[in-house]
Amino acid sequence: MAASFQTNLILILLALVLSSSATTAQELDETESLSLGPEKLTRFRLYLHEIFDGSNATVVYAAHGNATNLVFGTVSVLNDIIALGPEADSKVVGRAQALLAIASQTESALTMIMNFVFTDGKFNGSVLTLAGRNNLNLKVREVPIVGGTGAFQFARGYVRTSTVFISQINKTAVAEYNVSVLHY
Ligand SMILES: *[C@@H]1O[C@H](CO)[C@@H](O)[C@H](O)[C@H]1NC(C)=O
Ligand SMILES: *[C@@H]1O[C@H](CO)[C@@H](O)[C@H](O)[C@H]1NC(C)=O
Ligand SMILES: *[C@@H]1O[C@H](CO)[C@@H](O)[C@H](O)[C@H]1NC(C)=O
Ligand SMILES: *[C@@H]1O[C@H](CO)[C@@H](O)[C@H](O)[C@H]1NC(C)=O
Ligand SMILES: *[C@@H]1O[C@H](CO)[C@@H](O)[C@H](O)[C@H]1NC(C)=O
Known about the structure:
Layout: H1 2-27, E1 40-51, E2 59-63, E3 75-83, E4 92-102, E5 109-118, E6 127-135, E7 141-149, E8 156-167, E9 172-183
The structure holds 2-acetamido-2-deoxy-beta-D-glucopyranose (5 copies).
């Protein structure tokens, strides 16, 4: 019984593959097969400048979990400045736009999707996309780079990030991001 079910399943899957390849051959009249050349590894350092309170805040709480005493379930949206240095007057090259969720019940760990949107400098017009876990309990956190656009088409890599300072006086925080990215 199980064996014949398996045989049937294989036949159905085979039929699906054969029929879809037949359809593909009819519909795609133009195909390309290009060699992209060697990938290069680019490394650079950026600083995210955040205002976490007040009317010009660059991070806002968007939603929270139903359990009032827990940070678990908290969702925030972020639009930090990306600058070349940690100082307040450093050259601005873009924005870091992100969706952040506290997705651990035991640690301050974020599950995040973050886009580095470059509006100046060498990568003006390009976007680098990060997605993964950011465990805020660690001094240095590693987050994967999963793709991008413009200069970062086909990108993959990782960032290593740490907090430079958090000031409760002027409600600003700065984080350092060391980017290592493979792209063409
Ligand atoms: C917000 O930014 C504006 C424009 O830069 C500035 O005039 C204002 O003082 C800032 N508000 C706060 C609370 O920092
Ligand atoms: C949220 O919590 C309240 C009080 O504990 C409960 O009555 C309600 O059903 C909960 N709502 C959801 C969507 O879990
Ligand atoms: C960045 O790119 C945009 C769009 O191409 C362009 O309008 C702008 O002038 C560029 N900025 C700099 C500083 O090169
Ligand atoms: C980033 O790189 C610099 C220079 O190599 C290093 O001093 C710094 O500790 C690195 N930061 C992180 C968060 O890895
Ligand atoms: C806020 O305070 C920190 C720590 O004192 C300082 O390094 C930073 O330059 C200040 N930022 C602004 C925008 O004043």
